Amino acid sequence: KSKHIWKAFTRGPQQHIRQVLGRNWNTINQSALKRGHQRGGSNSEQQGENEIRFSPLQQVLYPALSRYADVMISTETRQNRNEINNLLSMHVLNHVLTSRSRIQKHNRRIKQLAEDNEQLIDEGDPDEFRDQGYIRPKVLLLFPTRGTCWTFVKKMIELLGESAILEMEDRFNAEFGPIQRETQPSEGEGEDDDEKARLEAIMKQKGREWNELFGEEVNDDDDFKIGISITPNVDNKKKTAKKGPQVTASGSGVKLRLFADFFHSDIILASPIGLKMSTANDGSDDDDDEESDKANVDFLSSIEMCIVTRSDVLMMQNWDHVNSALDSLNQQPKNVSDIDFSRVRNYFLEGQGRYWRQIIVVSAFSDPYILSTFRRHAKNVEGQMRIRKKVSTESASICDVMVRVKQVFQRVSCPNVSEAGSARVRFFSDHVLPKLQRLKQKHTLIYIPSYFDFVAVRNLLLKREVK
Q1: Do residues 141 and 210 touch, judged by C-beta distance below 8 A?
Q2: What pairing do the DSSP bridges indicate for beta strands 70-73 and 384-387?
């Protein structure tokens, strides 16, 4: 027994990874391990064949993730995105499976005590069965598009391997998977080949990053929400041969039901705008923002983990929707009729859920808006960890700019900070736009970082019929 305890201690945080996840981890994470080995930083060869192996980046991230500290990753690239998503998908599944297994164990114990007519709660440990929150959903994942959501869910299914028992998979692939474009028949094959070649050339000019988000077959819809319920320890029926009988493995399967109701889901995957639309008052025509903020967000009252993926892409949409979603987390529920308060954890009852909630923000760069959101909502008692890339002066991008461009900064006066956006739009309308129209200047790029300022400038240009 002491030998087993010592072996678990030497494994560190990996000892808490569920066996069903560790079974396929090394195979799925093989590309990340190979990349880490090429950089000379992986110690995978020194570990056993059945040991869970991490890349150098994953070795840095996982101790903080397993400790449930708030983590901000601002070093995501196309090269390491796969290994980051691998680790996050395992972390999400490990958390949900552990929580659901504990609840199932306590349910069986409570049922047994009820059948034996024994006291439900022992006087020595009154919090023995406090194993959940007010509502079932415990993980919230924010994605910019349906395509990125589909990729992450497929990663989780792949990690479960043969243990996964899926429901509604065909519908999920149809609504979130790659789009099958219908090709219209043309008069001649030569014209069809020319059009296809021209389209491929245009897509190639867009770049790999653009094609991964908005490619020809990529689902780039940004208004969606979906719930996933996970049930562990389910009998898994599988065929050993094409025409052979079904073999049932008792309690070895994990059931994933896609498109589950939010209040019966364990994981909620949504875009910020989709979540905003789902929490709006149903049938309400009131335009009061204060009333809209008081919408029904009970299904977010017990979130234990929130992951904001591709924050750099969400910045291009409307970052205020991300802040609105995070503001809705861990509020006291309005409808308490179906809540078993004897099973609710004490820190939820005391309104301290945000201090036990883990927030993970992943981005390709560090931005003041992202950093401000992280500092505002990252209140975990386990602390914070921020990972950023240090760029030397020699490798900075500004050193690659060969053509010197004259930069002119103009001061915009405003009485207070709250009116800064209106003052900028007013200054653009009174000073910048008339000058551009008078000089008939073409090929002018107008960059607007705020979505609300963009809407105001767009309405201004449409009103003045500027071409």
Answers
A1: no
A2: parallel
Token pair, residue 382, equals 């386990």
What's the confidence (pLDDT) of residue 190? 60
SS3 of residue 146 by DSSP = helix
What SS3 state is found at 267? strand
Picking from 269, 276, 262, 374, the residue whose alpha carbon sits closest to that of residue 317 is 276
Task: For tokens 């004490």, name the residue.
Answer: 346
Residue in this structure with the two tokens 């208004």, named with its chain if needed: 223
Reported as a single tens digit per residue, the pLDDT across 46-57 is 455 557 889 889
| pLDDT at residue number 287 | 47
Q: Which amino acid is at 57?
A: L
pLDDT of residue 443: 83
Q: Are 424 and 453 in contact (CB under 8 A)?
A: yes
Strand order of the β-sheet with 384-387 is: 164-167, 246-258, 225-239, 267-270, 139-142, 305-308, 358-362, 70-73, 384-387
Give backbone dihedrals phi and psi of 103, rounded to 5 degrees, phi first.
-65, -40
Q: How far apart are CA 58 and CA 114, in angstroms?
A: 45
Retrieve residue 79's tokens: 């090269």
Whether the Cβ atoms of residue 42 and residue 55 lie closer than 8 Å to each other:
yes
State the average pLDDT over residues 54-76: 92
Q: Is residue 360 helix, strand or coil?
A: strand
Cβ-in-10-Å burial (0-12, 13-18, 19+) of 20 comes to buried
Strand residues in 13-118 grouped as ranges (E): 70-73
Structure tokens at 53: 């192996």
